[in-house]
Design a protein that fits this description.
By secondary structure, the chain is an all-alpha fold. It is about 80% helix and about 0% strand. It is built from eleven helices and no strands. Helix 1 runs parallel beside helix 6, helix 6 runs antiparallel to helix 7 and helix 6 runs antiparallel to helix 11. It is globular. The two termini are about 20 Å apart. The mean pLDDT is about 85.
């Protein structure tokens, strides 16, 4: 298990696709701040705070994590790595768990890179905090990291279960878009810009459950629940992904 994990982690770190996604992550942060700064110059009434930079990564993180994990994990099938591991005697459980762990690492590394980049942007442009304390910002990045870890495991499971087929890209993108639309709809219904929430009964309970326990929403909503709630949501997605991944991958025919 550890030998396979070492090999997969090393392959991920040296993968050009992973480097590309990491550079996109960093570039996106700086580019977004430059756009916000330009807007501030053109419209002085619109003040740019460090809060805006810190919360910038969330809306982009889902697309980035899915792209990073899908591209790098799919190569394990196209290069014949998974088939060779099975032929060499490695168990399917070890192969899958190693891949899922690498997906988790994708989330950690991208989240850390975004956090460091946002700190550098704040220092470079001498931005000040508006309404959030250092503790609140730290909690936010911790929750974002947990969410990215869960999404990384889920995305990796998707590509492994689908056998590296190109359809995994279409399905992955469809899931991201669908969850993005659902997230916006949930937030719009629970926190309308005008008036009060009109949801009642089962639909209200369902929307509140999605807001609390679906990690896809954690990346676009600033934390307002207890940390245990976010732990349950992220942990739940990881556990569900692991169970489904192990069951399906152990029965899947590898060509």
């Amino acid at each position: 298990m550890f030998r396979i994990l070492y090999s997969d982690t090393r392959k991920m770190i040296y993968d050009r696709s992973f480097h590309t996604c990491l550079l996109i992550n960093i570039f996106y942060q700086f580019f977004s701040v430059l756009v916000l700064k330009l807007t501030n110059i053109l419209y002085p009434r619109i003040i740019l705070y460090a809060d805006d930079v810190a919360f910038n990564f969330g809306s982009f993180s889902i697309f980035l994590i899915f792209a990073s994990t899908l591209i790098t994990t799919a190569s394990d099938y196209s290069d014949g790595c998974i088939r060779n591991k099975i032929i060499s005697g490695a168990s399917r459980t070890s192969i899958y768990l190693s891949g899922a762990t690498c997906g988790l690492l994708h989330g950690v590394i991208h989240s850390m890179a975004a956090c460091i980049t946002s700190i550098l942007c704040n220092l470079i442009f001498s931005l000040k905090w508006n309404t959030y304390t250092v503790q609140e910002i730290s909690d936010y990045w911790l929750i974002i990291t947990l969410s990215c870890m869960a999404l990384g495991v889920f995305s990796t499971t998707l590509i492994i279960v689908l056998g590296g087929h190109k359809s995994s890209y279409v399905i992955g993108l469809s899931i991201v878009i669908a969850m993005k639309i659902l997230s916006l709809d949930v937030l719009d219904k629970l926190y309308p810009e005008e008036g009060k929430c009109t949801l009642t009964g089962l639909k209200l309970d369902l929307y509140q459950f999605i807001e609390k326990y679906v990690p896809f929403l954690y990346t676009i909503v600033r934390p307002h629940f207890g940390f245990s709630t976010y732990m349950l949501g992220a942990g739940g997605l990881i556990i569900i992904s692991l169970i489904l991944g192990l069951v399906i991958f152990n029965r899947k025919e590898i060509r």
